[in-house]
Amino acid sequence: MAEPTYIKQIIEQVNEVTARCGPIFIFGENIDTGSRISGLARGLTVNPAGRIQNVGNCELTHCGVGLGMVLDGGQAALFAKQLDFMLLGLDQFVNTFNVIRACRPRITWGSFTVFLIVCDQGYQGPQSSFNGAGDFASIANIPVFCLNGAADASKVIANHFAAPGLRIMCLSQRVFGAPALTLPVETSSADDAVFRYRSGDDATIVSFNFALRDAVDMDGKLRAAGVASDLFHVNFVPGMDTSALVESCRRTRKLILVDDSKTVTKFGDALVTELCERDLDVKVLWFTRRGVPDADYGAIEDRFVPDVDRALGFVRQSVVA
């Protein structure tokens, strides 16, 4: 029997929630026809009280409908082709949801989950390559989860897919057909912002966005060279509990940050700032990209590859120092 793919495993987790959550309205463009949103919604099911509805091309309205369900105490999930399209819904995410937060008691809220693809596979062109999920978390002050491994995806979907309030869950199109990353979680924070996958005293490796597979590969090669690290993945959750990250850095004194998003400001910057505020002597190595040159907005390969040899040299140099 073939092992499940990244996307198949995630949809199975969604179906576990939609089978038992009661009335839920799931909608999107081509959600039940054609490509099923490029395969995002293929195999999606709901319980008898739920409904899957194909809708037209109007993301601002879609986001307004979802937040209307929050106001009405209902449950909704919007499945969308790509993060780029959600820029059209930012007014709803920020201003409409701010009104709900200011005027409606949280106990009365319904649920709205935006479940979408990030086009990070390259060769997609300027309107299908926005890779800045963390900016949505910052602008709208809402949780944004980037689903990487089977274990973290399972936990995030189970705890948040039909939970009260608004959140965005992002999937990497680059690995849609790849085998699911079945790496066990050692520990996770109560808000599902921080997941630790491996332990070690030589360094702290923290991945963001969809960089977990690269971080796992880096950690494996470092371990083969005798370097054992704490390995974390961090979602974009405002006000997240960073205590596990801080304590790891306090112990290892070496921090490697791996972030394949294209945002200029990074959630990892906040971690480094916190370490400085605590006056912790921690050496930091970044593998990231802060924005992109104009030429990179065309149809390019767009593959982020961290330098493992540089990471190994960083850890060994830090040990000697």
* Cα radius of gyration in angstroms: 20 Å
Q: Could you give the count of β-strands? A: 12
Order of helices and strands: HEEHEHEHEHEEEEHEHEHEH
What percentage of amino acids are in beta strands? 15-25%
Helix content: 25-40%
Count of DSSP-assigned helices: 9
Give the integer mean of the pLDDT values. 94
Could you give the distance between the termini? 50 Å
Order of strands, main sheet, comes to 2-1-3-4-6-5
Q: Pick out the low-confidence regions.
A: none
Shape: globular
Q: In terms of structural class, how would the helical and strand content be classed?
A: alpha/beta
* Biggest sheet statistics: 6 strands, parallel
Structure description:
It is built from nine helices and twelve strands. The model has no long low-confidence stretch (mean pLDDT 94). With 321 residues, the chain is of the alpha/beta class. A six-stranded parallel beta sheet has the order 2-1-3-4-6-5, sandwiched between helices. The chain has helices at 6-18, 59-72, 90-103, 133-140, 150-160, 212-224, 243-252, 267-277, 308-320, and strands at 25-28, 51-54, 75-80, 111-118, 144-146, 165-172, 187-188, 194-198, 203-208, 229-234, 254-259, 283-287.
